[in-house]
Amino acid sequence: MNTLESISISKRNIVIGGFFLVTGFWLLSTFTWSWWGLFLGGVISWLLVFKQDALSAFSLPKKIWAIPLGVISYFVLGIVIGLLSKQLGFSWSANPASGKLGSLIFKIPFMLMGEELLGIGILETAKNKGLSLFYSTLLSALIFGLMHVFVYWDGSVFSTLVHVLLLQGVARLIFNYIYLITGKSVWGSWITHVLVDIIALSV
């Protein structure tokens, strides 16, 4: 049973864990050789913040029908947002990893587990500290989106912010929903995330 919402979490450990997550994401986004950065940072952060309860979020996913639903929802929303962005005159940067699936296929599972540990970690920590589920998942999506600013920088602050909040931020909302509906299972959101990226990087 996932007990992360009710355990005692030290504010000091949250700050230290946040440092490891930010450092890991920076490494992942900056250096091609540090694809393992966020995964390692996420594992260390989870062990620091959630301690012996860290594994409670890794139960087998329930309602697995939600996983393909999440994948479809992501691409439908992505297409709609992409069309609207073109109508509004935005020229958004593509994913730097586009077309490189072959060289990343064995790294993607670790990279995306790092992203899930980041997104779900923020969600569960915020809930643990008294935020409602609604605001906790919004906070998770906001931070997740903003952390992609440098990855998708297109030369315009406004355009880049709209990009990462509408695409990466909304993606985080979908992955958070899958996490919750599959029984608070990180495996559920991780599988969804892996499928989304494999499909997106292969076209």
TrEMBL record:
Name recorded for this polypeptide: CAAX prenyl protease 2/Lysostaphin resistance protein A-like domain-containing protein
Membrane-spanning residues: 12-29, 35-52, 64-84, 104-123, 130-151, 157-175
InterPro entries assigned to the protein according to its UniProt record, in alphabetical order: Rce1/LyrA-like_dom (IPR003675)
Superkingdom to which the source organism belongs: Bacteria
Domain CAAX prenyl protease 2/Lysostaphin resistance protein A-like stretches: 103-198
Keyword terms, alphabetized: Membrane, Transmembrane, Transmembrane helix
